[in-house]
Write a structure and sequence with these properties.
Elements (H helix, E strand, L loop, with lengths): L1 E9 L3 E4 L2 E3 L4 E2 L4 E4 L2 E3 L16 E3 L4 H8 L3 H6 L10 E3 L12 E4 L2 E8 L4 H7 L4 H8 L4 E7 L1 E3 L4 E6 L7 H8 L6 H8 L6 H9 L3
Antiparallel strand pairs: 1-4, 1-8, 1-13, 2-3, 5-6, 5-12, 7-11, 9-10, 9-13, 10-11
Helix pairs in contact: 6-7
């Protein structure tokens, strides 16, 4: 599987909701960008308790989902945001790739860096606030248009236009879509949760949550 990265996006924490800040608004970078263990340098996360870190180093929200949101939204300001490749906080803008196509543990080469998928993204209220539209987070949960996170196995440089190539398959029975349906949408059996708790390449936090659901 080969795709092209159309944009690499990063952001800084800015005023967002009263005293709160957020770096969900990601902007395209020009030239060579370095990927370190915690993600692109620089790329901020306002609340490091729930964002960023090695298990959420790089975020990809499928660019094709923007077309779905154009059909769902009517607010002009929200529609303008969809022109931005990093509108949902995504670091990577990639077309023709979805949650059904990739698995927990898939490894991708991007420039000199090696990335590994380790969990779906759990949406939060900031998506609704960013677009000024209530219910977007609930729609993400309902439709599974969630995006996912990578950990960085090998640091290196990359840039927009680079090939984004899957070089190793992970847990083929656990796509990001299926994992999201189980862990976020709650569509899973006790056996599913038991499998997820033992899924070696799934992020530790999600494995622990899955283990609790087997009791």
């Amino acid at each position: 599987m080969k795709r092209t990265v159309e944009a690499i996006c990063t952001g800084t924490a800015r005023p967002f909701n009263g005293a709160e800040t957020s770096a969900i608004a990601k902007r395209p970078r020009e030239g060579v960008v370095q990927i370190l263990e915690d993600g692109f340098a620089p790329d901020e996360q306002a609340d490091r308790r729930v964002h960023g870190g090695p298990d959420k180093a790089v975020h990809l929200y499928p660019l094709d989902h923007h077309a779905f949101w154009r059909s769902e939204l009517s607010d002009e300001a929200a529609l303008r945001l969809l022109d931005e490749p990093g509108a949902f906080g995504s670091n990577l803008a990639v077309s023709n790739l979805s949650e059904e196509d990739v698995h927990i543990g898939d490894r991708f080469r991007l420039g000199a860096a090696l990335l590994e998928i380790n969990q779906p993204r759990q949406p939060c209220w900031k998506v609704d606030h960013r677009f000024g539209v209530k219910g977007m987070t609930a729609t993400i949960v309902k439709t599974g248009r969630c995006g996912w996170y990578f950990r960085v196995l090998e640091i290196g440089n990359c840039q927009a236009g680079d090939v984004f190539e899957r070089v190793e398959l992970g847990h083929q029975s656990w796509t990001v879509a299926r994992t999201f349906a189980a862990m976020i949408a709650g569509k899973a059996s006790r056996e599913d949760y038991a499998q997820l708790a033992e899924l070696e390449l799934l992020a530790d936090g999600m494995r622990a949550r899955a283990a609790k659901k087997t009791g």
